[in-house]
Amino acid sequence: MLLLFLGPSNAQRYRNISLGSSLTPLGRNTSWLSPSGDFAFGFHPLPTNSSMFLLAIWFEKISSKTMVWYANGDNPVGAGSKVELTTDGRLSLKDSTESEVWNAGITNASYAAMLNTGNFMLVNSQGSPRWQSFQVPSDTILPSQVLDLGSHLSAHLMDDDYSSGRFTLQVQTDGNLVLYTVATPSGFQYDAYWASNTVGNGSQLVFNVSGIYFAQRDNSKVAITSSGVHSTQDFYQRATLDADGVFRHYIHPRNGLTVGVWSDGWTPVAFQPPDICQVTNSGAGSGACGFNSYCRFNENQHVDCECPPQYSFLDADRKYRGCKPDFAAQSCEADASETHELYEFTVMTNVDWPSSDYEQYGSIDEEQCREECLADCFCAVAIYDDGNCNKKRLPLSIGRTGSYGNKKVLIKVPKANQSESVPPCSIRQNKGKRTWILLGSLLLGASVFVLLTAILVVSYCTCSRRSRELQPASILSALSLQPFTYNELKEASDGFREELGRGGSSVVYKGFLQDEARTCVAIKKLDKVFPETQKEFMNEVETIAKTYHKNLVRLLGFCYEGAERLLVYEYMSKGSLMGFLFANERPEWNQRIPIALGIARGLQYLHEECFSQVIHCDIKPQNILLDDNFTTRISDFGLAKLLRTDQTRTKTDIRGTKGYVAPEWFRNTGITSKVDVYSFGVVLLEIICCRRNVRPEAQNEEESILAYWVNDCFRDGRLDLVVEGDDQAISDMRRVERFVKVALWCIQEDPSLRPTMQKVTQMLDGSTAVPGPPDPSSYISSIQ
């Protein structure tokens, strides 16, 4: 059918766009229309930011201007950009800095045309198409469009965010049409959740007046959707792989007809799969919704993601990111009586997370099931079903609603009277409740004021001295950390024999605790104990014990004995990021992507999600550790400053490591969390390039300083040099460019120009567009 639009009889059905023609986002020439005016090709503003644009094709005559194709979803451009059909026959999109963002990948086109079918074509002098949008679809196919074997559609991230999404529809070379979930931002493809089951017979996916079907080699058809009585004369039609992973066939009335409106005039008439919540059964990934959430396919045939009781969305505007518990994790050191006092179960029905089981029991009653989960610090949810008990740990995955018979879902939550046990970094406390507690305390205090005063006067000296003596013990009790004697840690480390690393005032040793599991730990021994380092030690203990995040190293205990100060951390088996990045073999690009994101999320937590903000002050590869699964863990809070929530700046001595230190450390100005943003930018460049930030042996200063060199490559449009020899990164240049742009924003000399770590995380994972960064005016002060 496509060939009907390419013959001589149709040569006058579209207007030729001549070589040298161009469009800009603003001004008179922003799009090229099809002859009927139904479709437009050009710059389409983002739904959430009218100053940023996609190169796209859209329905021009309807109010929603629905896009059906786009080129630069991961890299929107701003005013000053241009798309041009060059004199040598190339279609090229450039941003305001003249850097090429996208091109069609062909040369020697003689002209271009926007067809009435919605297909944009580049045509050679013989009238044959050299390139056409129908052959490189984004998330949509249109009537008369055919997808051949090897083609695919990719969903965008959200309804209003056109960066790479979490689902793909593939016309596989084995003849099968398959829907897959995809991890973001890595692009890793999980198991299929729907298929046409036409292996060996499929030929192509066809969209015509009969609907959408899979044409097979034996001339038979497998219907995917059917348009029914809705003709293309009366209705606009499209089939889109939506952001929620459902492939839907939509219609929109051309002439004011009403058929029941779903969104912006579009109504779905068919979709696959029938219920995505029930069919996503991959053993990996989060499913249709994020981790710790569950999926409901509502009456409007749309996906709703919901959180269990006492869980909340990580980002209410981006529910696909999943849910987090709004309470502290159960301590594995607590005894049974403490656990019963602190936790209980909320009961749900018709909900399940089928892929999260880690232990099962048979022939037990519900009370025994509750006891088994309550006694297990790893158990977050138990499913009880007629004598069977399945325990589940976090993160819960592939959650869904449905009819599950007699299943009871027991969700472990803190008891209502235990809210004060939640650590400040886990959840912000309710100020109104605290106010009533304060008023009650004041009234009670007033009634016994005279008695307390008498007691305090009599025992002032004794209590004052004893308070000072018991300070470490009281901190230990408050933080629920395991205390160690110096001899215990000396024995655990075999006399501090195996050194893992050292810093200016500490040495880290490997050790094994004398428990049943012979737990491997890292013991940090402060070798110089002056008054100020004692203070830093206690700050570190208090700070780390109140923080909990998967991208932070966890503190297990400490020793405070005489002049000895030691910290006991969980052991990170894969060592530091420095050893990982700068070993003889360059790590794979797909391994480095989640590492960069993990550092960003850890810093975002410290800066913006804790009740008390934490500034690390010494972000560098040596302080980024990797666990067994290469998950990023930020370590070494010995230099961190714990700020009260009403503070935003602090002045102090210069901290940090040469090459990673922000310029403001060298000036008489206040220090904010933006110093960590700067250091992260330098580390991000090292992750991208797998080279150190300073290379003294280089031939000139620009090449010796990584930030100089990458900035020059970016400005010259030669980012291929940055990842030269890295085939995986070269095949993912859009993400490479996004990461480089984020890094250049982070290392701006002016702290006010640097983004927050929350913004950094959003830009890295593709949920927020990355504008072109200014040319950093100076790196010298931070490197000298």
TrEMBL record:
It catalyses: L-seryl-[protein] + ATP = O-phospho-L-seryl-[protein] + ADP + H(+); L-threonyl-[protein] + ATP = O-phospho-L-threonyl-[protein] + ADP + H(+). Its EC number is 2.7.11.1. GO terms for biological process: response to other organism. The chain crosses the membrane at residues 436-460. Keywords: ATP-binding, Disulfide bond, EGF-like domain, Glycoprotein, Kinase, Lectin, Membrane, Nucleotide-binding, Receptor, Serine/threonine-protein kinase, Signal, Transferase, Transmembrane, Transmembrane helix. Belongs to the protein kinase superfamily. Ser/Thr protein kinase family. It is an enzyme of class 2 (transferase). ATP binds at K525. InterPro entries: Bulb-type_lectin_dom, Bulb-type_lectin_dom_sf, G-type_lectin_kinases/EP1-like, Kinase-like_dom_sf, Prot_kinase_dom, Protein_kinase_ATP_BS, Ser/Thr_kinase_AS, SRK-like_kinase. Pfam families: B_lectin, Pkinase. This is Receptor-like serine/threonine-protein kinase.
